[in-house]
Write a structure and sequence with these properties.
Belongs to the major facilitator superfamily. Sugar transporter (TC 2.A.1.1) family. It is found in: Membrane. The protein has about 500 residues and is an all-alpha fold. The protein has a single domain, classed as Up-down Bundle (Growth Hormone, Chain: A), CATH 1.20.1250.20. It has a two-stranded antiparallel sheet. A hairpin with a 2-residue loop joins strand 1 and strand 2. About 55% of the residues are buried.
C-alpha cells in the first residue's frame, strides 16, 4: 500500500499522517562506511562548504550578545539600550529581507554555485565595513549588507546540500546544515570572550572583521563542490547531471540502481514541473496559491518561520546580556563566559539532534521541542520574578542561568537541524529556492519585530515580558500539530506526493 491509497482526484485526503512511499533501491556502495569510497568521501567532505552557509548567522547573534558585554563597544557607541540597541540588531534581518529577492534569479538561472558566491562576496564586503565602522550609522549599514549576503548564502546552501547529497545521507546532511549556526555561535562567543580583555577598540573590531572568515573559505573552495544535478537537468544539461550522479552516488558505476532511480526521478519530475513553470514574482505567487498542496506548503513556511523566531529564542540569541544583568550577573567576564559556554552546549546538542529526524520523524521533533521550550520559558519567568522581589536570592538568579543554558537544546531539538531538513524537502525543485526565499523573508520580518521590540520590553517591563511567550508557544504547538505532515521515509521527489498526490503515470514501474 502506498500514498495512492490516500489520494482522491489528485488531492491528499489526510495530510497529517500518510503511509511512506516505496523506498529507493539499495545502493551497491557501503554507505554506512562511506569513507571507503573515494568519490563519496570527497562529496561528503565538499559538503562542508555549503554547510558553512548558516555559520555567519550564528556568528552574528553570538557576536552581538558578546559585544553588549564589551566595555569598549558600549562606550564607542554610547552604551545603546532600548530602541537604539534594537536598531543595531534589527539591521541584520532588514538586510536579509533585501537579500531574499536576489536568491532565485541568481541560483535558478546561474546555478547554486553562482548564488552562493554572490552571497559570500556581499557578506565579506559587509564584514569589512563593520570592522572599520566609525559611527553608529556605518555600523548599522554594514549589518544591513551582511544580512543581505547571509540570507543569499543560506537560501542557496540549504537546497544545494539537499540536492547533491547521496540519498542515504540526505536527511542527516541536510539536518546538519543548521547545526553550523551553533558552530558560528560558539566561534563568536569564544572570540568575544578572548578579545574583551584587549584594552582598545580592537576588542570589538576583531570579532566584527572575523565574521567574513567563513565566507572567504567558501569563495576559495567553492568550485570543487559539484553542481546540483537537479539544476543541471533544469537547464538542459542532462549528461552532466548523469555524470555527477554516476561519479559521486555510484562511485563510477552507471548501473548502480540508486543512480538509475535518481536520474529517472529527477528528469521525470522536472519535466512535469517545467511544463507548468511560471516566472517572476506574480508567477511565483500564482504557483503558491494555485493548488491545495502549494497553499499548504506556503502555510507551513509561514508558520515554521514564525515558530523559529517567536518562541523566546531571541532572548538567548541577541539579548543574553540584559537578561543576565537583570539577575545580578553584570561583569564582562561573567557575561562573555556564559555566552561562550552556552553556545558550546547548543552546538553539541544540535549535532546529536541532527541525527534523529530520520529515526524519530520530523513532526514529533517539532512538537517535543515546543513542549520543552514552553517549560524552560516558564522556569526563566519564575526565577526572574523571584529575583526581582529579592535581589539577595542567588538561587533564583542561578536557576535563570541554568534554564538559559537549557533553552538552546530545547530549541535545537526541533528547530535546528530538523527545520533545516524539513523546509527544503517539502518544496519541489522549481519552488525550492523561491520557497526558501519566502521562508527567510517571513523569518526576517519576525526577527526584526523581536529584535526591535524585545530590548524595549526588557527595559520597560523586564521579566513581565516573558509570559507573553509562554502563551504564544501553546498557540504554536496547536497550529503545528494540525498543519505539519510527517515527511520521514519518501525520497526527495516523492515527498511532493504527500502534498499534491501521485500523477497517474507514476504508477509505472521504474526500471
Amino acid at each position: 500500500m502506498g500514498i495512492r491509497d490516500h489520494v482522491t482526484h489528485g488531492a491528499v485526503v489526510s495530510a497529517t499522517v500518510v503511509e511512506p512511499l516505496p523506498e529507493a533501491p539499495q545502493s551497491l556502495l557501503d554507505t554506512k562506511r562511506w569513507w571507503r569510497h573515494p568519490n563519496l568521501r570527497a562529496l561528503n567532505l565538499w559538503l562542508l562548504i555549503p554547510l558553512l552557509s548558516i555559520f555567519s548567522q550564528g556568528f552574528d547573534g553570538s557576536m552581538m550578545n558578546g559585544l553588549q558585554s564589551v566595555t569598549y563597544w558600549r562606550n564607542y557607541f554610547g552604551a545603546p539600550t532600548g530602541s537604539t540597541l534594537g536598531i543595531f540588531n534589527a539591521a541584520y534581518p532588514l538586510g536579509g529581507i533585501v537579500g531574499v529577492f536576489f536568491v532565485t534569479p541568481v541560483a535558478d538561472r546561474w546555478g547554486r554555485r553562482a548564488g552562493l558566491a554572490l552571497g559570500a562576496i556581499v557578506s565579506i564586503l559587509g564584514a569589512v565595513l563593520q570592522c572599520s565602522a566609525q559611527n553608529i550609522a556605518m555600523f548599522v549599514i554594514s549589518r544591513v549588507i551582511i544580512g543581505a549576503g547571509s540570507v543569499i548564502v543560506a537560501a542557496v546552501g540549504a537546497p544545494w546540500i539537499t540536492e547533491i547529497a547521496h540519498p542515504s545521507h540526505r536527511a542527516t546532511a541536510t539536518a546538519l546544515f543548521l547545526t553550523f549556526y551553533s558552530l558560528g555561535s560558539i566561534t563568536a562567543g569564544w572570540i568575544t570572550f578572548g578579545t574583551f580583555r584587549i584594552d582598545s577598540e580592537a576588542s570589538w573590531r576583531i570579532p566584527s572583521g572575523l565574521q567574513a572568515l567563513p565566507n572567504l573559505i567558501q569563495i576559495i573552495f567553492l568550485f570543487w563542490v559539484p553542481e546540483s544535478p537537479r539544476w543541471l537537468v533544469s537547464v538542459g544539461r542532462k549528461d552532466e547531471a548523469h555524470a555527477m550522479l554516476v561519479k559521486y552516488h555510484g562511485e563510477g558505476n552507471a548501473e548502480d540502481p540508486v543512480v538509475i532511480f535518481e536520474y529517472h526521478e529527477i528528469t521525470r519530475t522536472l519535466e512535469l514541473e517545467l511544463s507548468g513553470d511560471s516566472k517572476g514574482i506574480i508567477g511565483t505567487a500564482k504557483e503558491f496559491m494555485g493548488t491545495p498542496g502549494n497553499r499548504k506548503r506556503m502555510a507551513i513556511l509561514v508558520w515554521a518561520a514564525i515558530c523559529s523566531q517567536m518562541s523566546g529564542n531571541a532572548f538567548v540569541s541577541y539579548y543574553l546580556s540584559p537578561i543576565l544583568t537583570s539577575v545580578g550577573l553584570k561583569t564582562d567576564l561573567q557575561q562573555t563566559l556564559i555566552n561562550a559556554t552556552n553556545q558550546m552546549l547548543s552546538w553539541f546538542s544540535a549535532i546529536y539532534f541532527a541525527t534523529l529526524p530520520e529515526k524519530i520523524g520530523r513532526r514529533i521533533m517539532f512538537l517535543c521541542s515546543l513542549c520543552a521550550m514552553w517549560i524552560v520559558v516558564i522556569s526563566i519567568t519564575a526565577g526572574s520574578a523571584m529575583f526581582a522581589k529579592d535581589e539577595n536570592n542567588k538561587a533564583a538568579a542561578y536557576s535563570v542561568v541554568v534554564f538559559l543554558y537549557l533553552f538552546s537544546p530545547a530549541y535545537n531539538f526541533g528547530f535546528n537541524g530538523n527545520l533545516g531538513l524539513y523546509i527544503p524537502e517539502i518544496l519541489p525543485y522549481l519552488m525550492r529556492t523561491r520557497g526558501l526565499s519566502f521562508f527567510y523573508f517571513v523569518q526576517f520580518c519576525f526577527q526584526i519585530l523581536c529584535n526591535f521590540a524585545i530590548p524595549i520590553g526588557l527595559q520597560d517591563i523586564q521579566w513581565r515580558l516573558y509570559p507573553i511567550f509562554v502563551g504564544w508557544i501553546i498557540v504554536e504547538f496547536v497550529v503545528l500539530y494540525l498543519l505539519f505532515p510527517e515527511t520521514k521515509g519518501p525520497s526527495l521527489e516523492d515527498i511532493a506526493y504527500i502534498f499534491d498526490g501521485r500523477p497517474e503515470y507514476d504508477d509505472e514501474k521504474i526500471i
